[in-house]
Amino acid sequence: MTDRAVAVVRAGALTTVQDLGRVGYAHLGVPRSGALDPGAVRLLNRLVGNLGAREGAAVLETTVDGCALRPRCAVTVAVGGAPCPVRVDGRPAAWGTAVRVPAGSLLEVGAAVRGLRSYVAFGGGLAVDPVLGSRATDLLSGLGPAPLAEGAVLPLGADTAVRGSVDAPPWPGPPDELVLRVRLGPRDDWFTAAALRAFATRAYRVSPASNRIGLRLEGPALERARPGELASEGMVLGAVQVPPDGRPVVFLADHPTTGGYPVVAVVRETDLGAAAQAVPGTPVRFIAVR
Q1: Cα-flanking dihedrals φ and ψ of residue 52, to 5°?
Q2: Nearest CA to 218 among 284, 174, 288?
Q3: Which of 290, 278, 48, 256 is nearest to 183 (CA)?
Q4: What's the CA gap between 139 and 119, in Å, rounded?
Q5: Which of 15, 141, 201, 246 has the most other CB atoms within 10 Å of its CB?
Q6: In terms of Cα–Cα distance, which of 124, 283, 131 is closest to 219?
Q7: Which PANTHER family does this chain map to (predicted)?
Q8: Among 259, 265, 262, which Cα is nearest to 213's?
């Protein structure tokens, strides 16, 4: 194993390798996957010197309680996304900017103080083997590397001496209320007028059952205007599918590529990054736009 690698000391509740996903394979039943907050990935990669096409270099996505890592070589690291404590060999280190970690040192990414998912970027990126052009872990299909486990060793790509020009960029805080802009359809005609009014005016809350596949919501059930079920049809990122219980589910990165429940609306992709940090109980509102 090359010295340009990082060993996993503590894997955390769920830590996965993610990049910007594998685009263009939905017709084969393969979801996009990739980081739930791609904006954070691009910014962190710039901070550690992964510029241009390397802004999509593979990073780690942690969930709730972080992870601990020991690089085998000196490497530049940046931790962002959900705010969390960062330590190097027990000493506090900066969050949200580039930090040089010596070879053999212990990098500890702590539990999220707010939000859910923190990201760890490395100079050179993680160089695990790509599958269909992406290094992303897809929890639905099982493609890509397995979620991290203690003792695993992840190779790093070639480092660069170039560093990002922003020392402390502004980071959007995890949302107190998640506001999602949607375009109604394609199956909004499957719901009553009262249901569509409730969808656009009432508040929902993020369910603890949410995951990388979908943001499950608690709140008013949407009543259907017609019985029966649809034949399976294609699903896109941000689709708001309504299962038989009437509670909407917003499809995220690991969503299935087909489904038979009606889609009442589709969320703007630019609004989905905030969903990565919406903890259970966060209020959610939908705003219909053209």
Answers
A1: 60, -130
A2: 284
A3: 290
A4: 17
A5: 15
A6: 283
A7: 5-OXOPROLINASE SUBUNIT C (PTHR43309:SF3)
A8: 259
In order along its 290 residues, the chain shows pLDDT tens digits of 468 999 999 999 999 999 999 999 999 999 999 999 999 999 999 999 999 889 999 999 999 999 999 999 999 999 999 999 999 999 999 999 999 999 999 999 999 999 999 999 999 999 999 999 999 999 988 999 999 999 999 999 998 766 655 555 677 778 899 999 999 999 999 999 999 999 999 999 999 999 999 999 999 999 999 988 899 999 999 999 999 999 999 999 999 999 999 999 999 999 999 999 999 999 999 999 98
The residue whose two tokens read 């904006």 is 39
- Of the chain, the end-to-end C-alpha distance in Å amounts to 53
CA angle centred on 55, ends 25 and 168, rounded to 5°: 140
> SS in 3 state form for 190-253?
HECHHHHHHHHHCCEEECCCCCCCEEEEECCCCCECCCCCCCCEECCCCEEECCCCCCCEEECC
Q: DSSP letter at 272?
A: S
Q: How many whole angstroms separate alpha carbon 205 and alpha carbon 203?
A: 7
CA distance 70 to 89: 10
- Yes or no: say if 121 and 44 are a contact pair by the CB < 8 Å rule: yes
Structure tokens at 166: 């922003």
Q: Are 164 and 77 in contact, with CB atoms under 8 Å apart?
A: no
Residue 282 DSSP one-character state: -
Contacts of 72 (CB under 8 A, 6+ apart): 3, 4, 5, 6, 7, 103, 104, 153
Q: Are 120 and 80 in contact (CB under 8 A)?
A: no
* Cα distance between residue 147 and residue 136, in whole Å: 10
